[in-house]
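ok, trying the design again with the full structure, not the truncated one.
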């Protein structure tokens, strides 16, 4: 557990001054609390002496004033230690969450293929709450419990060692219970956090795929799936509740025994005249105050174990390293570069043992439009991902503007491309902001930049039909738009991004016209090639009609280039391209 908390030291260090002030006021409050029973002792003794000595009003008023002053000091001190300690823990929580979010964005594409979004969300929310409790209230319970226990025991033993030693006899058993239950709490809480992650993932997956859920009338299946994960979470938490249900009543019972012992021992001393009524009242107050520090130790163990379990889960994410990173000394692409836009030399790539791409050799000159055709699973999307190092190609196989992609910085490399991915992902924001997403300085560009992109992508004709036009907010993942509209927004986003770039970009369209009709497709391609004359464009499609105006078309089959040439040349070869064109014409006819 200590090793886990050492990872928090860099976050705690900047706030050490605030924590010191917080602990100062916390100890000051403890000191003030210790004085209250002494005032009560004197007041009770003064009242007890009234039948013999009469009412001593000045002393009673002075003591009452002292108690009132201590109450004011306690209130102010409690506010200040909360301000410094809880305020710091909240700031640290925010810093860790920000750093964790920043770190997650540095991780490579493959990390998100193996990680569940619900689990990541649980770690950045629920687990961080537990860490904040540990470095906030957990530390308070520890310092407060230690200081209060030591001070109370010191005063009690100074006042009456025999009565004090007999009264606290049950407390060592509490220490044993804390040590016994402490390890169990950490394991059970980690299990609770893991089930919470599973439940969060179920919720996220269900709502993200709500269209599919409703289309297949599978609400009942997801209701049962959530019920199972919810029940697992309940059981995991009930295991903790049962443990606490045994732990805290036992501690309270043993603490109550201390009061019983005091009444027996102290009461007999009061009757014998060796202890005053005020001293017994002070002892009683001290024992009542001692119950909180004892319980506080239990709270400390609980929160520290929870915090350690959660911090361990967070550290697992921090330990993840991006599998693809910029080189230590990256090269740069010059603005006046005249090399080929993309050159592929002997590219062979495999996710596991079976090659997805094999022996690819291809040169794409700048300013050309290149089409890529192939069956599903032929390696088209994988080939595109190697260009931008979304997956890492072998060294000296992919060259962009004459530079090996593995020698370029990731930011610069990817800034050379304007991409319309196969999955037309939209954010839950306005259409305007979704299109302007790739522009670094959105406000610096006139609406005409976005309007031109919307016109080329054939989105402009739909804007009048939207309730708020450009400001229409689409649902999560563009839920409120049709498939074709989402694709056209994604195309407009890539075009706006390319238009705003300081240097020419390679436009990549990965099967992004599949959801639009043939006429709309022809209009988009005509305007696209007209507007982007002289710019390099890569178009992946299953439709031969999409590639008719390309300068060059390659056909991928089983990860290999089997055909390479202009559309007219490939039509004469009667290969896969010509056969696909013939079949698609028959389907249209």
């Amino acid at each position: 557990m200590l090793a886990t908390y050492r990872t928090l030291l860099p976050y705690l260090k900047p706030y050490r001054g605030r924590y010191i002030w917080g602990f100062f006021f916390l100890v000051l409050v403890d000191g003030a609390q210790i004085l209250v029973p002494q005032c009560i002792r004197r007041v009770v003794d003064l009242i007890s002496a009234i039948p013999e000595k009469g009412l001593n009003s000045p002393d009673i008023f002075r003591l009452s004033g002292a108690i009132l002053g201590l109450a004011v000091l306690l209130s102010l001190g409690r506010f200040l230690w909360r301000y410094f300690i809880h305020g710091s823990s909240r700031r640290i929580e925010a810093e860790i969450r920000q750093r964790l979010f920043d770190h997650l964005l540095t991780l490579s594409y493959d990390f998100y293929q193996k990680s569940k979004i619900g689990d990541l969300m649980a770690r950045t929310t629920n687990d961080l709450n537990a860490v904040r409790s540990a470095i906030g209230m957990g530390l308070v319970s520890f310092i407060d419990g230690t200081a209060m226990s030591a001070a109370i025991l010191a005063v009690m033993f100074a006042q009456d060692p025999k009565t004090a030693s007999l009264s606290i006899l049950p407390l060592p058993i509490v220490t044993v219970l804390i040590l016994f239950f402490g390890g169990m709490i950490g394991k059970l809480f980690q299990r609770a956090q893991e089930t919470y992650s599973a439940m969060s993932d179920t919720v996220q997956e269900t709502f993200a795929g709500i269209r599919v859920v409703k289309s297949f009338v599978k609400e009942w299946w997801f209701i049962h799936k959530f019920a199972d994960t919810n029940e697992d979470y309940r059981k995991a938490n009930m295991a903790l509740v049962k443990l606490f249900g045994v732990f805290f009543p036992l501690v309270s019972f043993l603490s109550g025994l201390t009061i019983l012992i005091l009444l027996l021992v102290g009461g007999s001393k009061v009757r014998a005249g060796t202890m005053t009524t005020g001293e017994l009242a002070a002892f009683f107050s001290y024992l009542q105050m001692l119950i909180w520090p004892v319980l506080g130790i239990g709270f400390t163990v609980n929160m520290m174990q929870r915090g350690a379990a959660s911090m361990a889960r967070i550290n697992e994410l921090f330990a993840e390293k991006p599998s693809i990173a910029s080189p230590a000394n990256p090269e740069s692409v010059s603005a006046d570069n005249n090399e080929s836009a993309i050159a592929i030399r002997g590219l062979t790539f495999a996710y596991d043992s079976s090659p997805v791409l094999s022996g690819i050799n291809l040169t794409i000159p700048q300013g050309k439009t290149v089409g890529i055709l192939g069956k599903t699973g032929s390696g088209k999307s994988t080939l595109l991902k190697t260009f931008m190092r979304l997956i890492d190609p072998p060294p000296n196989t992919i060259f962009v503007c004459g530079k090996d992609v593995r020698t370029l910085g990731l930011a610069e490399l990817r800034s050379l491309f304007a991409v319309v991915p196969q999955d037309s992902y939209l954010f839950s924001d306005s259409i305007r902001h979704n299109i302007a997403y790739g522009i670094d300085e959105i406000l610096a560009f006139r609406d005409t930049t976005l309007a031109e992109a919307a016109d080329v992508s054939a989105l402009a004709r739909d804007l009048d039909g939207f309730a708020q036009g450009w400001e229409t907010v689409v649902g999560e993942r563009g839920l409120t738009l049709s498939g074709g509209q989402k694709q056209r927004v994604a195309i407009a986003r890539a075009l706006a991004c390319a238009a705003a770039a300081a240097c020419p970009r390679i436009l990549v369209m990965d099967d992004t016209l599949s959801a639009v009709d043939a006429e709309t497709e022809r209009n988009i391609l005509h305007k696209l090639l007209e507007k982007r004359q002289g710019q390099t464009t890569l178009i992946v499609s299953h439709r031969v009609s999409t590639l008719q105006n390309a300068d060059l078309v390659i056909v991928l089959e089983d990860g290999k280039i089997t055909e390479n040439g202009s559309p007219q040349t490939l039509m004469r070869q009667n290969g896969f391209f010509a056969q696909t064109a013939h079949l698609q014409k028959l389907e249209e006819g």
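Keeping the full-length input from now on. DSSP finds 21 helices and ten strands in the chain.
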